C-alpha cells in the first residue's frame, strides 16, 4: 500500500476512484460458487419496488443479522425500515450495491450506514474514504435524505490492531462529517470494552457479532436518535 | 350509567400474547435445546478440519454428553464431496473413541444458494456418502433435516435462509422438529445406570 505522506485530511478522506480501493465500487466475486451475494442484491433491488421505507439500514453482517432478531420488529419495523445488510460486505461492496439499483426505487428520509469492520487490508484513512464516498453517493441519489453513520464497534476478546483501526476510522469519519448538514456519526458502543480491556461473549458472542443483549444495548439509543431525526425531517 | 353498560373489570379477557408465535432466533435455543441440557460449540465458517482441531485440543476433555450432534461441511470449499464426507467421518470416529458412551447424530448438509448451483450438488453428494458410510460406524446415525427447503421451481426462500445459507428463526424451527424428536428418543433409550455413571 502506498502512503500519501503529506496529503491533507480532506484529501485522505475524500479520496475516491482507483487511488482508494475502499472507495471504488466493487461487486463481490462469487468464489464459493452459489451466487448468493448477487442474489441478495437482486432481491434488494426488486423488493424495494413496492416499498416506501422511511428508514433504510445498509451495511454488513451487523446490519443483516439485526433483521433476524426480535429487536428489529420491536424498534425498527414501526419506523417503516428496510434492511439491505449483507454479511462480509466492505465499503466498496456497499458502494457498488447502492450505485447499481438499491436506491433506485425508494426515498427514505434517513439512511443508517454501518460498514467498515470487514475492510481487511485497508488503512483507517482508506476505510473512512470509503464511508465518505457512500455518504456522497447517497447525497447525490437522495438529495433530501439524512445519512446516519454508525461508529464501527470494537472487536476481538482483548486489545488488538483492529480495535485501534476501527477507533481511528470513527475519529476520521466524525471529523469528515462535522461540516456536512446532511450526515453525522453516531457512536453506538455502549461500553463493550471492560476495564481490563476484554469484550464479553455475552455482548459479542464471537467477539465481532452482537448477541440479542448486545443489540438491545446498541439499538435503544439508536432508535431514540432515529426518532428524533425523523421528527426533524418531518418539520423541514 | 345505565344498566346496559358492561363493567370492563368484569369482561373476561385473555392476556394478549404480544410476543406472538413468530419467535426469533435467540429463543429457539432457549426454548427447545436448553431443556435438554445442551452445549453449543459451533463456530461460524468452520470446516471439518477446524472442528477436528478443536475437538482434539480440549473441547472434549471435561464433558460426557449422551448425544453429540455434528453439523459441518458446507464451508469446506477447498475439498471434494468425498473428502468432506471423509472429514465428517473422522469427526464421528474421534467422538466415539474419545466419548465411548456418546451417540453421534450427523446432520445432513443443507441446500444453499437461491437457485440450483454446484454447491447444492456437492452437498447432496456429501450426504450420499454419509448415508452409506455412517451406518458402518457404531453408535452413529445420519439425519437429513433439509426436506422442504428447495421449492418446486428450484429456489430457496429468504424466509427460510435469510442469505440463502444461514437459517432464519422459521428455518431453525423446521429443522428442530425432526432433530428434537430423535434426540428425545435417544435420551430416553439411555438407561438410568448409564446416565448416573456419566455425571
From TrEMBL, chain A:
Residues 57-217 form the SGNH hydrolase-type esterase domain. It is found in: Cytoplasm. GO terms for molecular function: 1-alkyl-2-acetylglycerophosphocholine esterase activity; platelet-activating factor acetyltransferase activity. One of its GO terms (biological process) is lipid catabolic process. Residues 1-26 are annotated as: Disordered. Belongs to the 'GDSL' lipolytic enzyme family. Platelet-activating factor acetylhydrolase IB beta/gamma subunits subfamily. Alpha1 catalytic subunit of the cytosolic type I platelet-activating factor (PAF) acetylhydrolase (PAF-AH (I)) heterotetrameric enzyme that catalyzes the hydrolyze of the acetyl group at the sn-2 position of PAF and its analogs and modulates the action of PAF. The activity and substrate specificity of PAF-AH (I) are affected by its subunit composition. This is Platelet-activating factor acetylhydrolase IB subunit alpha1.
From TrEMBL, chain B:
GO terms for molecular function: 1-alkyl-2-acetylglycerophosphocholine esterase activity; platelet-activating factor acetyltransferase activity. It comes from Salvelinus namaycush (Lake trout). It catalyses: 1-O-hexadecyl-2-acetyl-sn-glycero-3-phosphocholine + H2O = 1-O-hexadecyl-sn-glycero-3-phosphocholine + acetate + H(+); 1-O-hexadecyl-2-acetyl-sn-glycero-3-phosphate + H2O = 1-O-hexadecyl-sn-glycero-3-phosphate + acetate + H(+); 1-O-hexadecyl-2-acetyl-sn-glycero-3-phosphoethanolamine + H2O = 1-O-hexadecyl-sn-glycero-3-phosphoethanolamine + acetate + H(+); a 1-O-alkyl-2-acetyl-sn-glycero-3-phosphocholine + H2O = a 1-O-alkyl-sn-glycero-3-phosphocholine + acetate + H(+). It is an enzyme of class 3 (hydrolase). Keywords: Cytoplasm, Hydrolase, Lipid degradation, Lipid metabolism. This is Platelet-activating factor acetylhydrolase IB subunit alpha2. Its EC number is 3.1.1.47. GO terms for biological process: lipid catabolic process. Its main location: cytoplasm. It is found in: Cytoplasm. GO terms for cellular component: cytoplasm. The gene is LOC120045113. Belongs to the 'GDSL' lipolytic enzyme family. Platelet-activating factor acetylhydrolase IB beta/gamma subunits subfamily. Residues 20-174 form the SGNH hydrolase-type esterase domain. It comes from the Eukaryota.
